[in-house]
């Protein structure tokens, strides 16, 4: 491998390198870290966030930002619990992703029709979505203690939680879509140079709407998993998840300017943030240092990838 | 030897080598550039001209070898250091701050100031600078609103404002009109007569022969020769560049259009972007040229036709049916495509590899059920890379690192994958070398022969005359006259254009 290849490697795998470093460090520091049980737990707990970050990757590659996925998550949680309670638990789970898809489409339409930056538009829609969620739930918790509802978040297939399977399948599908389909190619071109994409006959508005719809779908799907796990719907669910998802995507090396990125790296970004948390828990470390450590690890990852950019 | 005429050269490179990711772009280049000369730098696309210019200007560090500037070694050489020692560079891809004004860009980094506070003297300073250099621009205009030609002038003014003793000009004329080129040449000569040194990179060998004192030829990153221009001819330069006995060939044979059916019919078109009255037709298999001075509104006419700019009046018909509510997406769907003049802004997606760029407008043809047919894509892109001799030949090559001419080849190649119904080419051969130019011309002729209606815009009048069946003269957004390219020559066209301009001014005068 020559110097250039090493640089390239560092740039694209910085987040993975940090994940590996953390795994090594944590497993030397604690016996209970490197157990199948603990690792599966980490994955399970972070599956909803990883699903949202996977879809967010497409939004950011296409040059957008979605600050409303946390609010869509809340809508999904409240609606699926409400429907489960009043109509049918299966329907509640099934509708959450579709509600998310609808809200995401609304985002896309607002952004493309009003020609506002997605950053601003999704701040506004997130307040609206959250407000509706509060109205639907009447500001209260909606408990759903039915096995027909909680299976999704609590049961396992082949020893692995359903949530982990769903996350893996979702990330693999999105990776495939991004790299092998015409839609994926268009997503890259819209974020890379929108004018050139338009001049190439691409209906860039439709592509943007589709990425936001997908992000909404993912948030709905994530909320179904999460609400089924805790068997409780509430309007405050998902608060702050939009920022975590965006942080994970950018930590994974997806360019905030658009045009460049990969889904698996966002999942690795989620994992990196999760490992830090997990480390604090199993080491019983002083949580006062948690933010400090997280910040340092993020800086280290950025440093590695920036080191790769210099020749 | 040259070195005894001027003992201390302005720039001396000794065995300079530059590699990018292990691939050499320059190998052991040793050149002396004398004080007070205009030094031509030529070579094929990707030969390393810009790279050498950037080493001199401090933008690239040499991987090996060394450089002396006015006899002193250039150590810790970066753009600020270069400027401090009087070496300025004008880039091939313009490097201006679009949101700032002309004056702000020219004096960027050397603002008039008192303890960090700006003084409002820039406009005056710029006016004085423009008086001495012969360029004229509105100091308060915002750069984003200016044409490429005007932006290029800003780059020149920027170097002059720094009182540079050595100025590297990388393809400064690629978007200038004939008289602007003449103007630029005069300023170069004025600079030389003041004892300054100009390094002039260009693909226009006539220009190199006309104004340079000495010339350096690069081929594949290697130094071929440096010598007095007076001892060179066009043929000798071409063969040095290409490394064989090859010479430039004339334009491809004009094939008369098979039938006279009109495909594109534009009548009384107007747009707020500066189209005041465009009326033209293009038939099937016909190549029609638009000739005008830079800023005459040729590109704006093209943009109004395809719907990139909204039209305020007039009609566009396609095969006899009116085409209303034009937009780029609909135009592409109906087979009207435009190859834009600004490859960085409108043309290429720099974050996509060559493959992704070339097939972008044709994805439906390279996919089945939404999946990209990668083998087919690779095969076709490989063919095009071969045809245009894109260097490097990687189908997954990172276009953002390609040389200017090679980017242009990718841009043109992208539109030739499929035969469109109407194709509008805006400056198709900007910045490409003789070989690639020939290929592009051949491809344009073939597209027309295949039944496409071609509208060709070029600042090189010869190019339009050589390729087009018919041509329109354009002045201030108006198609003023139709001419027969076979009956016209460059001088005649130019004088006709000036005559139109003059009569328009007389009409305007009270
Ligand atoms: N930043 C970069 N990274 C990788 N390769 C590069 C980079 N810059 C230039 N190159 C490569 O170096 C070679 C020389 O490029 P250069 O831009 O100097 O050519 P040039 O002679 O100016 O060509 P043109 O006439 O097309 O402008 C090309 O093969 C190009 O692809
Ligand atoms: Mg160049």
Q: Keywords, please?
A:
heterodimer; A: 311 residues; mainly alpha; ABC transporter involved in vitamin B12 uptake, BtuC; two-stranded antiparallel ribbon; two-stranded antiparallel sheet; B: 510 residues; alpha/beta; Rossmann fold; 3 domains; 6-stranded mixed β-sheet; 17 helices; 34% helix; globular; binds adenosine-5'-triphosphate; binds magnesium ion
What does this structure look like?
The complex is a heterodimer of chains A (311) and B (510). Chain A has 311 residues and is mainly α. Chain A is 77% helix and 3% strand. In chain A, strands 1-4 form a two-stranded antiparallel ribbon. Chain A has a two-stranded antiparallel sheet with strand order 2-3. Chain B has 510 residues and is α/β, with parallel strands linked by helices. Chain B folds into three domains: 11-242, P-loop containing nucleotide triphosphate hydrolases (Rossmann fold, 3-Layer(aba) Sandwich); 251-335 and 422-510, Rossmann fold (3-Layer(aba) Sandwich), CATH 3.40.50; 348-417, no CATH class. Chain B is 34% helix and 25% strand. Chain B has 17 helices and 24 strands. In chain B, β13 and β14 (275-283) form a beta hairpin. Chain B starts with 10 loop residues before the first strand and ends with a helix. Chains A and B meet through α1, α8 and α9 of A and α10, α11 and β20 of B. Bound molecules: adenosine-5'-triphosphate and magnesium ion. Adenosine-5'-triphosphate binds at residues 20, 25, 43, 45-51, 92, 391-392, 401-406 of chain B.
């Amino acid at each position: 491998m020559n110097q250039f290849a090493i640089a390239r490697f560092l740039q694209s795998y910085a987040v993975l390198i940090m994940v590996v470093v953390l795994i090594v460090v944590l497993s030397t520091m604690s016996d209970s870290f490197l157990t199948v049980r603990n690792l599966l737990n980490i994955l399970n707990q972070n599956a909803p966030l990883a699903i949202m970050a996977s879809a967010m990757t497409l939004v950011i590659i296409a040059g957008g930002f979605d600050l409303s996925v946390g609010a869509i998550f809340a809508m999904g949680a409240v609606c699926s619990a409400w429907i489960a309670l009043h109509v049918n638990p299966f329907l509640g789970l099934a509708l959450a992703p579709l509600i998310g898809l609808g809200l995401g489409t609304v985002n896309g339409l607002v952004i493309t029709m009003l020609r506002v930056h997605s950053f601003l538009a999704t701040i506004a829609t997130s307040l609206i979505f959250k407000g509706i969620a509060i109205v639907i739930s009447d500001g209260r918790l909606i408990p759903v203690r039915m096995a027909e509802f909680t299976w999704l978040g609590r049961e396992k297939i082949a020893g692995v939680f359903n949530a982990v399977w769903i996350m893996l399948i979702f990330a693999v599908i999105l990776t495939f879509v991004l790299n092998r389909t015409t839609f994926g190619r268009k997503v890259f071109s819209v974020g890379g140079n929108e004018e050139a994409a338009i001049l190439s006959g691409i209906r860039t508005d439709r592509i943007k709407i589709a990425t936001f719809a997908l992000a909404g779908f993912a948030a709905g799907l994530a909320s179904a998993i999460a609400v089924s796990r805790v068997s409780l719907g509430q309007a405050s669910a998902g608060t702050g998840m939009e920022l975590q998802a965006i942080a994970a995507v950018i930590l994974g090396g997806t360019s905030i300017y658009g045009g460049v990125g990969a889904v698996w790296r966002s999942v690795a970004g989620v994992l990196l943030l999760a490992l830090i948390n997990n480390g604090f828990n199993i080491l019983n470390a002083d949580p006062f240092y948690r933010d400090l450590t997280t910040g340092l690890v993020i800086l280290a990852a950025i440093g590695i990838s920036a080191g790769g950019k210099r020749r | 030897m040259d070195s005894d005429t001027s003992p201390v050269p302005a720039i001396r490179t000794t065995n300079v080598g530059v590699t990018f990711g292990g691939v050499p772009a320059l190998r052991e280049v040793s050149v002396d550039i004398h004080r007070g000369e205009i030094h031509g730098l030529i070579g094929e696309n990707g030969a390393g001209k810009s790279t050498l210019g950037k080493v001199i200007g401090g933008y690239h560090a040499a991987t090996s070898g060394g450089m002396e500037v006015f006899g002193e070694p250039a150590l810790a050489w970066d753009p600020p250091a270069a400027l401090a020692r009087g070496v300025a560079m004008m880039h091939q891809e313009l490097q201006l701050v679009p949101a700032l004004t002309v004056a702000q860009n020219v004096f960027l980094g050397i603002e008039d100031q008192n303890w960090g506070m700006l003084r409002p003297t820039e406009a005056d300073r710029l006016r004085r600078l423009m008086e001495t250099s012969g360029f004229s621009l509105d100091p308060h205009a915002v750069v984003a609103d200016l044409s490429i030609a005007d932006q290029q002038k800003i780059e020149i003014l920027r170097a002059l404002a720094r009182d540079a003793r050595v100025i590297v000009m990388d393809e400064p004329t690629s978007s200038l009109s004939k008289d602007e080129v003449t103007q630029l040449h005069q300023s170069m000569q004025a600079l030389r007569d003041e004892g300054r040194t100009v390094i002039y990179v260009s693909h226009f060998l006539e220009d190199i022969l006309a104004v340079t004192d000495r010339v350096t030829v690069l081929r594949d990153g290697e130094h071929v020769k440096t010598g007095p221009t007076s001892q060179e001819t066009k043929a000798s330069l071409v063969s040095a560049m290409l490394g064989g006995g090859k010479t430039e060939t004339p334009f491809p044979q004009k094939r008369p259009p098979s039938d006279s059916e009109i495909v594109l019919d534009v009548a009384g078109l107007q747009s707020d972007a500066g189209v005041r009255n465009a009326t033209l037709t293009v038939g099937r298999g016909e190549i029609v040229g638009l000739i005008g001075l830079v800023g005459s509104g040729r590109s704006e006419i093209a943009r109004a036709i395809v719907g990139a700019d909204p039209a305020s009046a007039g009609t566009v018909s396609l095969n006899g049916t009116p085409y209303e509510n034009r937009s780029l997406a609909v135009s592409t769907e109906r087979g009207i495509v435009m190859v834009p003049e600004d490859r960085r802004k409108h043309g290429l997606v720099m974050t996509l590899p060559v493959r992704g760029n070339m097939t972008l407008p044709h994805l439906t043809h390279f996919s089945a059920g939404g999946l990209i047919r990668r083998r087919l894509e690779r095969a076709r892109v490989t063919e095009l890379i071969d045809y245009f001799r894109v260097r490097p030949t990687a189908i997954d090559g990172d276009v953002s690192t390609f040389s200017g001419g090679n980017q242009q080849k990718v841009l043109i190649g992208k539109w030739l994958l499929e035969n469109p119904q109407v194709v509008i080419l805006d400056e198709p051969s900007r910045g490409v070398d003789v070989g690639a130019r020939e290929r592009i011309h051949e491809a344009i002729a073939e597209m027309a022969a295949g039944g496409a209606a071609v509208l060709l815009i070029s600042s090189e009048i010869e190019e339009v005359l050589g390729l087009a069946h018919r041509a329109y003269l354009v002045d201030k957004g108006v198609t003023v006259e139709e001419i027969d390219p076979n009956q016209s020559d460059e001088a005649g066209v130019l004088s006709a254009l000036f005559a139109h301009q003059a009569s328009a001014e007389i009409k305007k005068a009270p």
